[in-house]
Amino acid sequence: MNTALLAIGVFATAFFVHLAWWRIALPRRQTAALLGLFCAVLFAWLTVSHVLPGRWFTAADRWEAIHVAVFHTACTLAYVVAYSALEQRSPSMTMLVAVADAGEAGCSPDELRGLLAGVSPLEVRLDTMIHDGMIMRAGDTYRLAAKGWAWASVFASWRRLVGLPRGG
Predict the structure, then answer these.
(1) 148: part of which helix (H) or strand (E)?
(2) What distance in Å separates the CA atoms of residue 107 and residue 100, rounded to the nearest whole number?
(3) Which among 33, 44, 60, 154 has the fewest CB atoms less than 10 Å away?
(4) What digits encode the pLDDT tens for the residues 107-142?
(5) Cβ(148)–Cβ(134) under 8 Å?
(6) Residue 123 exposure: Cα atoms within 13 Å on the Cβ side
């Protein structure tokens, strides 16, 4: 039980540092900042656990440290994936929040259509990918940047490895 509480505490520490940082100033590259922050908190905790073993806030031994690190890494990756859905609001999420905010009165179909008028999720995603250096715009076409090629190669290799067909 102590290991579980310790693991939750390390993750919660990173999460609350993340909330404070985002309140002060929103990072330009939020996903990278999240990964860096959560990894830094884990690294700092592992270092403190090595220097001061057996304290109530540190691991008693290497196995406990490994358990906490695995838990923290899994939760970090799950949170980063969930955060990406919050970072760029999807049409479904936009409608869901609007209906929730309307309360008992609800929303009419015209009100919901108005929320999404002029908003292209594809354009928002393309702009984000350009901003992140995944693709670049050349006239009327988009081309993969070096970072995009690297990620595309990883995903294509993974799809081949698990036997999925080519394509998206």
Answers:
(1) helix 146-162
(2) 9
(3) 154
(4) 888 888 887 776 677 777 788 788 888 899 988 899
(5) yes
(6) 4
